[in-house]
Design the sequence.
């Protein structure tokens, strides 16, 4: 499968503005739901300053894309599991009286032949309207969710979102923007990778790519390889081959002023393992900077454990153990490709990006530091 490349400027139409927009309610609640290839996640939040306060949340592994690589269709069992999870989300939305929301689905539904049928079934059984978003918007939302973690010293930024069915990479140049304005300039990408002219500078997107290989789809590509170490090595090199066309500044970029931010369950699990957390703590993981040596040590530890040991390791967790090695293979490939010995860990992603984008568009976020 070839990576999906951008089709140039204008991929996102300019929103049509209402002639008399109603004033947004600063106390309103917003919902953001991300239905991926492996997981169903939702946040309900209230705007607070330049960010938001989470009121309710939901996360469950539903394995919507199970068997998709083989059949090209969503299975009945996968759809049933997912609809059961979506019913819980619908109850939370109703209980919190949420009216502003975006409920999106990504790679599994982009690829499945019966995706439209599934979306109609979701609407019929839960009342929720799912929206299939394209790779560029998925990448853009991941980027803006990570804006608060960007260092003011960063001039070149690579944001990597490792999903279940695809991996998005976005390279951003913020070298011409005043240091204190750099995180806000990234946030302005909520209007698109090529935002309209504005007195406030937006970050420059140098290049981006969506590779149709995530933790679930990459694992399924090599599921027939029995040797654990060999399978890991094959996955890592295969993923790197799929990055061949995405090489902005690869040969000339200096380490100084370069930052890579990784957002995914893989990255946060590796961080939790590095910290030796017996129980996951988002406050210790989100924003953590890990060296490449620390990441390699964790991955070598996973390989030493073997499949049975990983299954029993409480730091990995039952939901993550089947996918941690394919995710680690992607992470290792990324660190081989770019000139950095550090990675910033983001326990945030599509849901947070959806919330920031909605709130920014409604004008309910305050200007200022995150």
Sequence:
């Amino acid at each position: 499968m070839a990576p999906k490349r951008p089709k140039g400027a204008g991929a996102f139409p300019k929103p049509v503005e209402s002639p008399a927009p109603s004033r947004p309610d600063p106390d309103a609640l917003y919902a953001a739901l991300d239905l991926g290839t492996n997981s169903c996640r939702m946040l309900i939040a209230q705007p607070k300053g330049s960010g938001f306060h989470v009121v309710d949340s939901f996360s469950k592994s539903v394995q919507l894309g199970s068997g998709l690589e083989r059949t090209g269709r969503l299975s009945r069992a996968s759809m049933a599991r997912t609809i059961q999870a979506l019913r819980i989300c619908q109850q939370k939305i109703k209980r919190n009286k949420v009216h502003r929301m975006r409920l999106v689905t990504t790679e599994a539904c982009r690829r499945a032949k019966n995706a439209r049928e599934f979306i109609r079934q979701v609407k019929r059984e839960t009342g929720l309207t799912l929206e299939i978003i394209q790779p560029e918007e998925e990448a853009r939302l991941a980027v803006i969710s990570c804006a608060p973690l960007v260092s003011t010293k960063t001039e070149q930024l690579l944001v990597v979102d490792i999903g279940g069915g695809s991996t998005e990479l976005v390279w951003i140049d913020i070298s011409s923007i005043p240091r204190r304005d750099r995180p806000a300039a990234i946030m302005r990408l909520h209007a698109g990778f090529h935002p309209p002219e504005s007195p406030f500078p937006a970050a420059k997107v140098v290049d981006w790519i969506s590779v149709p290989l995530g933790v679930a789809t990459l694992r399924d590509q090599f599921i027939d390889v029995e040797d654990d170490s060999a399978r890991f090595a094959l996955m890592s090199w295969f993923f790197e081959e799929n990055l061949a066309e995405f090489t902005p500044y690869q040969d000339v970029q200096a380490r100084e002023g370069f930052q890579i931010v990784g957002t995914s369950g893989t990255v946060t699990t590796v961080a939790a393992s590095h910290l030796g957390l017996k129980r996951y703590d988002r406050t210790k993981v989100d924003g953590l900077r890990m060296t490449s040596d620390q990441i390699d040590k964790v991955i070598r530890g996973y390989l030493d454990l073997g499949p049975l040991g990983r299954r029993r390791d409480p730091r990995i967790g039952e939901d993550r153990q089947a996918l941690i090695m394919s995710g680690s293979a992607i992470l290792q490939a990324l660190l081989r490709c770019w000139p950095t010995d550090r990675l910033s860990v983001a326990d945030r992603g599509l849901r947070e990006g959806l919330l920031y984008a909605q709130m920014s568009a409604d004008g309910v976020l305050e200007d200022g530091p995150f």
